[in-house]
Structure to design on (742 residues):
């Protein structure tokens, strides 16, 4: 694949309005949309980004709201704005060769009644209820962000791994001394901070933890995390910005990823490896696709095994960790993946149009001859 | 207008899935949809009703869910089912001459991208947030259920008052002795049961009240209603079925409608008048359109004035109350109104198609001549 498109495409990107593109602190989906959109513009495509008005982009920005919905406390029904936002894109569907939706179920019904094809990246989680909507529209083209995410029987056009801007993560050739383990992520039971603490306590290692505590997770945090924070062995840094995140991960000897749910991608693993720090993770969801087991970290079957693998993980090559991310989880890789999907879908559609027109013309000529 | 359509139309009706059609106890929208749909079938139209699977209808039923969503406690995100339901209708838009939506904002974006016209009846309330969605799609044809409901600057095709099945309400030529005042409606501050109680206490009249208490209104009920219920002067009957409702209203000397908000229609007023009982109401929203002031009740400017009008209201003709409903708020009236809107919209569209085709043909003939 070349970085010059053989044909420039007119592409619409639909981001959620909840957070701006790129997000100020956290927001996995909006970060991916930002990197993807800017790189598509650099490659010569004509891209329109439908997002909140405070977004920053190289594409033409169409504001679905003046600013990120989460910032406007006067809004009681955010879904009303998402409805209008998605509606606006499909009202203008004729202007695009392809529409790329990052808003999950909200674009499916509209995508299935307009002529322009839409491809849907699955960023969110599946619930009992939203699963039924995805199933109803299973013939739409979907992109999974890992093979492990393919839990539903949908029409998958490709798996495209999330890409990170590797150049924005400095490489740390050596961990800090005294050494520590890192945990980064929301403090929710699914991300497993309670297991990170147990592993540190079992092995005597220091542990530095960072991430946000959502309102719904407050009780969990207070009961299962807070009592263990002593500022010495177990440190809690709260929410961190990009620079602090790179420091936390890069200076660590090992990053722990002790999830308890099927993580669809897990950006933290890629970010840690980008700084040179290997990852020890629980084998659920995408973990075995993101870590090169025995080379850039260890994929474990239990939290005890995670603790046992620390000595081996210390011996892994930090250089190799970085190279792994450069090869598999860069923005270039991600955009190559998406561009190939767009070209295939748009190409198939153009071919169908050309073929139908050709058949029609032949039939007409034939009919004229017979007259 | 005749009850035989000059052309039978293929009509889709979209009801919410929350409650079945018709509703078992309460559900204003679903009751209107039920009466409308059955009468359209009787008039010879080909009607498809998109509603919950436990609905009863003369039309072809397309089930958006096996049963009313409110009955299925396993559902955490009911909106997912409404999404699929509405999506299904528009996927099949080509099968219909016209689509009639009773689901508010949820059908607007889809209606604006398919070729089949959709008309939207406004049943719900306007919020700060949903108002913006209606405004975005203001060129779609809307039907208001009273002139008072036209608070937004939308493309109103008509006002069509809700119609009730007058024959299902027995006429009560005389009120019960000893006489009493009736209040029927949800026990929420907007419906004003607190004012009904104050009016009864001020005048010494007995008051019988019925209706449901929603979870959100429990505190209001316990603080402002319950302390006054003594089972003698102030009686509370709880939720009532159709027969009990007709008895409560028909045996009353007067029905009070002491609302504190802009009621868009107010079925209770029509139901009370159908049984012969005049209504004294606060002048907000549709009240002055539904009551013939001085003939079938009194439209008042204050709750004190409502109390003062009781002696005059006792002298009104109960026969006239019933006739008023038969003339203005019958199902026949309502369906005449909707049928006229459908015929106009479908007719305009057919004319546009014919006109465009005629122009195209003329141009082609002209071009051939010139060759």
């Amino acid at each position: 694949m070349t970085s010059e498109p053989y044909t420039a495409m007119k592409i619409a990107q639909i981001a959620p309005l909840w957070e701006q593109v790129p997000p100020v602190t956290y927001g996995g989906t909006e970060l991916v949309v930002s990197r993807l959109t800017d790189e598509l513009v650099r490659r010569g495509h004509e891209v329109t980004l439908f997002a909140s008005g405070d977004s920053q982009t190289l594409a033409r920005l169409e504001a679905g709201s003046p600013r990120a919905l989460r910032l406007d406390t006067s809004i009681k029904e955010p879904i009303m704005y998402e409805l209008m936002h998605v509606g606006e894109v499909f009202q203008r569907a004729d202007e695009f060769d392809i529409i790329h939706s990052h808003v999950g179920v909200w674009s499916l019904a509209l995508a299935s009644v307009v002529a322009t094809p839409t491809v849907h990246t699955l960023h969110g989680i599946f619930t009992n209820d939203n699963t039924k909507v995805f199933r109803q529209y299973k013939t739409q083209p979907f992109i999974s962000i890992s093979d492990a995410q393919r839990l539903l029987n949908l029409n998958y056009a490709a798996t495209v791994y999330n890409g990170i801007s590797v150049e924005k993560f400095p490489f740390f050739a050596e961990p800090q001394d005294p050494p520590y383990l890192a945990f980064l992520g929301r403090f929710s039971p699914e991300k497993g901070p309670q297991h990170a603490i147990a592993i540190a306590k079992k092995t005597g290692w220091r542990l530095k933890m960072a991430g946000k505590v959502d309102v719904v997770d407050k009780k969990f945090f207070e009961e299962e995390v807070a009592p263990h924070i002593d500022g010495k062995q177990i440190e809690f840094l709260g929410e961190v910005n990009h620079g602090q995140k790179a420091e936390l991960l890069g200076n660590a000897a090992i990053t722990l990823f002790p999830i308890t749910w099927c993580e669809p991608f897990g950006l933290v693993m890629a970010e840690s490896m980008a700084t040179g720090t290997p990852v020890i993770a629980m084998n659920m969801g995408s973990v075995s696709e993101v870590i090169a087991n025995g080379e850039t970290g260890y994929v474990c079957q239990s939290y005890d095994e995670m603790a046992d693998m620390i000595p081996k993980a210390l011996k892994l090559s930090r250089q190799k960790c970085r190279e792994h991310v450069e090869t598999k989880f860069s923005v270039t890789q991600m955009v190559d993946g998406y561009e190939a999907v767009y070209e295939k879908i748009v190409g198939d559609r153009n071919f169908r149009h050309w073929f139908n027109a050709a058949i029609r013309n032949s039939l007409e000529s034939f009919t004229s001859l017979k007259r």
Remarks:
- Residues 1-5 of chain B have pLDDT under 50 and may be disordered.
- Chain B touches chain A at residues 74-81, 83-84, 86-88, 90-91, 93, 105-106, 108-110, 112-114, 127-130, 132-133, 136-137 (CB under 8 Å).
- Chain B has two domains: 10-163+330-359, 166-328.
